[in-house]
Design brief:
Blueprint lengths: L1 H19 L3 H11 L5 H12 L2 H12 L5 H22 L4 H21 L2
Helix pairs in contact: 1-2, 2-3
């Protein structure tokens, strides 16, 4: 039963990822914390492992097929993301779980306010 719930979570996150370019952080992390009882650190690490292949390959391929991928930008952002992810993953190990959860919530709040109220 639990595997079916994990697969359903992946399906929902995948649909949102395909529709909006989001899913991992906004859908999967809170679900893993609040529905499945993972710590914030475990949820973030698990989500990073989840996103490596399916989002990066299949959804991006579909966008590329429709002319909606700028490869010259993607290559450089990917390089920065690759090394930045390593650096961020190193430092986050020193942040207590409750503080990390609050930091994540604040980030989502500010992003949502900008999306709703910004130009």
């Amino acid at each position: 039963m639990t595997q079916a719930l994990y697969a359903a979570l992946g399906l929902v996150a995948g649909i949102f990822g395909g529709l909006f370019g989001i899913g991992g952080a906004i859908i999967i992390i809170p679900a893993l914390v609040y529905l499945f009882g993972l710590t914030q650190h475990q949820a973030q690490g698990t989500t990073l492992a989840i996103m490596v292949a399916p989002v990066g390959l299949l959804a991006a391929l579909r966008y590329y097929q429709n002319g909606n991928v700028n490869l010259s930008i993607a290559v450089f952002v990917c390089l920065g993301f690759f090394f930045g992810g390593f650096i961020g993953a190193h430092f986050v190990q020193y942040v207590p779980g409750p503080l990390l959860k609050k930091m994540f919530g604040v980030l989502l709040f500010f992003i949502s306010m900008q999306m709703m109220l910004g130009k």
